[in-house]
Amino acid sequence: xxxxxxxxxxxxxxxxxxxxxxxxxxxxxxxxxxxxxxxxxxxxxxxxxxxxxxxxxxxxxxxxxxxxxxxxxxxxxxxxxxxxxxxxxxxxxxxxxxxxxxxxxxxxxxxxxxxxxxxxxxxxxxxxxxxxxxxxxxxxxxxxxxxxxxxxxxxxxxxxxxxxxxxxxxxxxxxxxxxxxxxxxxxxxxxxxxxxxxxxxxxxxxxxxxxxxxxxxxxxxxxxxxxxxxxxxxxxxxxxxxxxxxxxxxxxxxxxxxxxxxxxxxxxxxxxxxxxxxxxxxxxxxxxxxxxxxxxxxxx
Amino acid sequence: xxxxxxxxxxxxxxxxxxxxxxxxxxxxxxxxxxxxxxxxxxxxxxxxxxxxxxxxxxxxxxxxxxxxxxxxxxxxxxxxxxxxxxxxxxxxxxxxxxxxxxxxxxxxxxxxxxxxxxxxxxxxxxxxxxxxxxxxxxxxxxxxxxxxxxxxxxxxxxxxxxxxxxxxxxxxxxxxxxxxxxxxxxxxxxxxxxxx
Amino acid sequence: xxxxxxxxxxxxxxxxxxxxxxxxxxxxxxxxxxxxxxxxxxxxxxxxxxxxxxxxxxxxxxxxxxxxxxxxxxxxxxxxxxxxxxxxxxxxxxxxxxxxxxxxxxxxxxxxxxxxxxxxxxxxxxxxxxxxxxxxxxxxxxxxxxxxxxxxxxxxxxxxxxxxxxxxxxxxxxxxxxxxxxxxxxxxxxxxxxxx
Lengths: 300, 196, 196
Hints:
The complex is a heterotrimer, with 1 copy of chain A (300 residues) and 2 copies of chain B (196 residues). Chain A has 300 residues and is mainly alpha-helical. In chain A, 51% of the residues lie in helices and 5% in strands. A 3-stranded antiparallel sheet of chain A has the order 2-4-3. A two-stranded antiparallel sheet of chain A has the order 1-5. In chain A, α7 packs across α9. Chain A starts with 36 loop residues before the first helix and ends with a strand. The N terminus and C terminus of chain A are likely disordered. In chain B, α1 crosses α3 and α2 packs across α3. Classes of the chains: A mainly alpha (300), B mainly alpha (196). At the A-C interface, α1, α3 and α4 of A face α1, β1, β2, α4 and α5 of C.
């Protein structure tokens, strides 16, 4: 069977060309071959054998934000509709929350689960590692399939048309449709197809619209009122995981704009966040940076 | 042409090489074409083909297949001695009706001919190799004399197709637009080629 | 079933008869179906097919063709050794590569079928819509007849997937779990992690 296909569809996650090629502070990311957030995470954590607690979150963040910027630029250049950027931003949220959870879980003292919350974090960590392992497992399975696919490509099945004397034996076709039915069928097949609704990735998120700008504002307010806070305190009132994620994203953005600083007293201590007083951070301006997605994550 | 061709370095040599190509060939292949493929003189190919043909006819036992030379070249066929069994295989489960998939594929070919299998697949969103073969066997479509981009085989409908649908010519195929109210750009649907 | 089947009265017997039928088959034919056609026990057909396959592999010389059991049955293939020559004759999509993304998506579907796009995306961490479309167009996957939770379309691999990978059945896929030390129950992981 000849699987004729005009072209290979490129990987669905656009990988910006050579983002972060140059080595910066021992941190080097070649995003060329990445295929989604889990690839990036695996690359960061397994390939480079980074202990998540030793990874400065800010550095990782910068890499991701650079990645997003490349995407936005690429999207603007190609004049695409920004769906890709929205997709990637959503994926970025997955990475961000996964990284955060990993880090938070790693920061917990081992064997000392003080309360229910700690226990949940540990569980979350196990799940996240399991997810990464699963992803890796499928990558390996794909390798097997790829090898088979290539090896089998060297063989061609015999699939020839029926010899005329046997074709002549076939029962005479009964045609049950006329030209109009045929036209209707052709019209249906040739009609532009609506893109299938994407049912990806946000099914587990709940709540109304959450914007990075709004969350940045509420973080600013909270820090102004109470000074230095741990991340757990910043998200203590979050009604849904989505808000935690967006708040985390807002923090990354604020850090990038030098509006806040992170501090960690000791290796297993909490991550403390404080406002940099002299910064000219404008929460509303964040909106522009995430234009592709409207700076907003919709729950649908 | 060198004395030792690449095929001579493989176990089985030219004869096995010829078997490999002919096993997947749907239409008869000329010895000249085979000579090109294997980079050996045509006379050598012709001799090897004769050898194979007589080997199949009975060195050990008559094979179930035979290598026959027809006007345009050589092709594997099933041996006539076993025609009863082959017929019962061919007729098993055959119906007088075309499947829905075959009809849809026929409709796409009718309105987009000449068209390649790749493009039909892209339009229908499924692999159409087997239904295209059915339509060929049934004589409703045939290969277009010229190849498309990248050497793809193109297909067109036949006279028999027009007869079966009661049409005098392809111009009598109904326009598509009335069948899709609500599609804004009906003109382009009727005329433009599908973008795959 | 009589001791002497009609095919036994023909020169060449069952083996040649099998060759004749397989010569016109354009899909793999199961030994059960062949047994019906020749009115002999399935076990006898299976043994004869094994004999033929190993005969082609080398009794005299390796033939240019091979008889292989793939998906649900047996079929003639050109032998891989002669791929260079065959592909210079056959110009089709057989050699078109699958992207890494397509292979990984195919792996998830193969091991988790039937599975929705949502779940594939969750496992792979990326949107898979366009890759799923590619796999559908290539005939490697198809829609599952029933919808999943919340009306999501489910996907499964096809017979062609097995044929194209030279697998007899899905059971021949290597176990996934060895890749996953410490993860006891993936199913529960799936349902615990993503509620789609």
